[in-house]
């Protein structure tokens, strides 16, 4: 699994999109951020204890939920242009998935 170090930014950091409006932090800092193709993938908690997979290209418009059904996502790994992970679906834990970044390409 690759890990990425953030370089010093020339500009101050800004919020691209508030995934979980209100107080608190929705980013799951215990999960690594992964880069695949031209996107950065991350796990965020949008609605309380539903850790889901998101991706961004650094713009507000393209900071989106990758798959709405799979929750409690973990074990992110980049493999070329795909991202692999496991999560929970229909009450079953440890469901392994691979995605090219859309619900339609998540298998």
Explain what this protein looks like in three dimensions:
By secondary structure, the chain is mainly β. The chain has no helices and seven strands. A four-stranded antiparallel β-sheet has the order 1-2-3-4, with no helix packed on it. It has a three-stranded antiparallel β-sheet with strand order 5-6-7, with no helix packed on it. The radius of gyration is 14 Å and the shape is globular.
SS-derived structural category = mainly beta
Low-confidence stretches: 1-9
Outline type: globular
Q: Largest sheet, if any?
A: 4 strands, antiparallel
Mean pLDDT: 82
Helix amount, in percent?
under 10%
Salient structural properties:
4-stranded antiparallel β-sheet, globular, single chain, 3-stranded antiparallel β-sheet, mainly beta, 107 residues
